[in-house]
Every structure is written in structure tokens, then in C-alpha cells.
Design brief:
alpha/beta, 2 domains, twelve-stranded mixed sheet, 379 residues, 32% helix, elongated, Arc Repressor Mutant, subunit A
Length: 379
């Protein structure tokens, strides 16, 4: 199996609001990558084309310069891919670049963010742009939402990729084990995608691509990373400063691409935090995390049956759990419509929404802290 040559381009610092990775560039107040520097890189390459080029989650400071950079990147790659975080989709005027980008990848680790992408996805599809994917960054806090994400992709007719964060040196969960526990059938490695090893998987008949890093495997890694300052590295996780594009020769670029991937080494085993969220209401009445997850997914799917499917429990078990919790609290948390067009639709009451919104805020804050501290969790 021949590995792809992958160019990863970071044209600006990262979005501070995004919690999908450790944001290596979030505190790096570097300028927007200069088109003239990228043109020098193109000249050095001569006629060489990367199999794929990925522009990583840019902050748009100058839209015309952004479009110019994408045009240059398209000229040095066979497939031009743009990654954008779900939290920032509304800042993109994608109509200007539908003819430049071959694939748009929305990056998310929070199912709530996806609802905000609906209009954006519909606008793209109305322009005839169909190559839209969702990169679901799997972690210990969002694994239970994966089936809801599959449902979202099925309804929106977009492709689903599941994998680790791009800027982390490890995966905090066993992706294969986690997805198998959700009833997802996983196949063998078939090739490369986004510089990762790619496996095909299925949930019922819906296809999913699972991505894992080639580091510490027998598979070669053929990547090159361009920093916003015009520095060349094997990948963004390497601690060395890299070689400046203006001083690089084609032999230097080839050497970096074909060099051995050297991920950060740690003297101790990987440390992964395990966090369980629960709530104490009044009179020591507790709401455990499974109940909180059930309420959250009901709020998303508007169906107890669908929420039960996501959590892998029988609907009668879910109803019993909800009724017992409502009895303890003395409050109604859900309401089901009995007739009309929305018959069978289940919604949260105002009290149920209050509980779920608090749960979401807690999770969001935890994910933000973990994202900021991921690099220091390793000894």
C-alpha cells in the first residue's frame, strides 16, 4: 500500500473557542502566512504535486489573501482540502472558493455545534458542492454522542470521519474499542486520508472512515507541515523550529517528507483523565451522568426511542429511568406530544432544559481545560 504525500498548511493561529485539539498555535500570535513565501515553496517544488494538501482551521484576517493562498495550494496538490472548525463556519464566504477546494471538512467534538452548521451545509449543497465531510474528534466526554453524529450525517448526506485531534500526540480513547461498543463494524486499513491511516467501518449500512496516526506502526508517514511563519517541519507536534522556506532546497523538502516520524516520547505511560459528571439537586437527590446523557440526547433527537438507541438501552428502561428521576425531583423533565403533526415527539420541559444546559456548560468548561492542559498531562 503506497502512502500518500500529505501537505499540512497552517496559515494562521488557531481558534481559541475550538476545543478539538491542544491548540499548539493558539498562543502563537503569528502573522497570516504570506502568499509570496508560499510561492517560493511552489517554485522549489518545481512540478512535484502532493497527493493531498490540507489547510488547517484558518482564522480569516484577509479574505482575498486567504483565497490567494488556497489557489497556490491547489497548484501544488492533487486534492485541495480545507478544514474549518464547526464554531467558525458562519465566518466563511464559501461561494468564493467552491471552485478552489475539492473537499470541505467540518471539525467538531461537540454535537451542539453541528446544529449551527445546518444552514452552512445547505448553502453549500445548493451551490452544487457535495464533497462535505465531518471530522468527529472522539474523546472520553463525547463518545456517547457518536451515534447522534451518525444520524446527523445521514440526514445531511455528508461523509463522516472519526479520529483523534490533529495536534495531539496521542488519542485519549481507544477509538476502535469505543466504536465497536456502539455497534459499529470496523474493517481493516485500506489506505491513507488526511495523513492518517484510514479504515472503513459501517453502522448499519452507513459508511464511516476511521482515522489513526501512522506513528509507532509499521506504516510509513509522508507528511510535511508549513507553519504560518513559513517554517517547514515533518509535523506540527515536533518541537524543533524547522527550516525556513526561503532557505530550503528540494533535497531538504524531500528529506523532511521521507524522514522517520518521531512522536514525542514520555518516560511514563500515557495519562488520560477520566471524568464523571453528576449533580446534587435538593435533599441530596442525585442525577447521575447516564441520566444527564439521556436528557441531552432527547433534547437533540426529540425522541426517547432514538435516544435509547444512541445509549444502547431499551426504550422502556429509559422511560423508567426518567419517571424515577422525575418522582425524586418532584418535577417533569420531559413532555411527549400525543396528537397532531408532531405526535410522539418528546421535548424537555423548561426544568429539563435548565438541567441539560448546566450539564453542557460543565462539559464545555471541562473540555476547554483539558484541551489547554493536554500537553502538560504527560510527565
Amino acid at each position: 500500500m503506497k502512502p500518500n504525500t500529505t501537505l499540512m498548511v497552517s496559515i494562521s493561529a488557531c481558534y481559541s473557542e475550538c476545543n478539538c485539539c491542544s491548540k499548539i498555535l493558539a498562543k502563537d500570535y503569528s502573522p497570516f502566512l504570506s502568499p509570496s513565501i508560499l510561492m517560493k515553496f511552489k517554485d522549489v517544488l518545481n512540478d512535484f504535486l502532493f497527493d493531498e494538501a490540507i489547510t488547517l482551521c484558518p482564522i480569516i484576517q484577509d479574505y482575498f489573501r486567504f483565497v490567494e493562498l488556497l489557489r497556490i495550494i491547489k497548484g501544488i496538490s492533487k486534492r485541495n482540502i480545507l478544514f474549518i472548525p464547526a464554531v467558525s463556519v458562519n465566518s466563511f464566504r464559501f461561494k468564493d472558493i467552491v471552485n478552489i477546494v475539492d473537499e470541505l471538512v467540518i471539525v467538531s467534538c461537540n454535537v451542539e455545534e453541528l446544529v449551527k452548521c445546518n444552514m452552512f451545509v445547505e448553502s453549500l449543497q445548493s451551490l452544487g458542492f457535495e464533497d462535505i465531510s465531518l471530522y468527529w474528534v472522539l474523546n472520553s466526554l463525547n463518545a456517547h454522542s457518536t451515534l447522534a453524529v451518525i444520524d446527523y450525517c445521514m440526514r445531511r448526506q455528508i461523509k463522516l470521519r472519526v479520529g483523534p485531534a490533529l495536534y495531539n500526540s496521542y488519542s485519549e480513547v481507544d477509538i476502535d474499542k469505543t466504536l465497536t461498543s456502539l455497534g459499529i463494524r470496523i474493517g481493516c486499513v485500506y489506505g491513507y486520508l488526511y495523513g492518517h491511516l484510514a479504515k472503513k467501518a459501517y453502522y448499519n449500512e452507513f459508511p464511516i472512515t476511521i482515522l489513526t496516526r501512522p506513528c509507532n506502526t509499521s506504516y510509513p508517514c509522508r507528511r510535511l507541515f508549513i507553519h504560518p511563519l513559513g517554517l517547514l517541519k515533518k509535523c506540527p507536534l515536533q518541537s524543533d523550529k524547522g527550516k525556513y522556506i526561503g532557505q530550503a532546497k528540494v533535497t531538504d523538502i524531500t528529506k523532511i517528507i521521507y524522514s522517520e516520524c518521531k512522536p514525542r516520547k514520555h518516560s511514563m505511560p500515557r495519562l488520560t483523565p477520566k471524568i464523571i459528571i453528576g449533580m446534587i439537586v435538593r435533599d441530596d437527590v442525585a442525577i447521575d451522568e447516564k441520566s444527564l446523557e439521556l436528557l441531552e440526547i432527547i433534547d437533540y433527537t426529540k425522541s426517547i426511542r432514538s435516544a435509547s438507541l444512541v445509549l444502547g438501552i431499551h426504550p422502556s428502561t429509559a422511560i423508567k429511568k426518567l419517571r424515577e428521576l422525575e418522582t425524586k425531583l418532584g418535577l417533569r423533565l420531559v413532555k411527549t406530544r400525543r396528537g397532531g403533526q408532531d405526535r410522539g415527539r418528546t421535548e424537555l420541559t423548561s426544568e429539563g432544559k435548565e438541567v441539560v444546559n448546566l450539564y453542557r456548560r460543565i462539559k464545555k468548561n471541562i473540555m476547554k481545560v483539558l484541551s489547554e492542559e493536554q500537553n502538560t498531562l504527560q510527565p
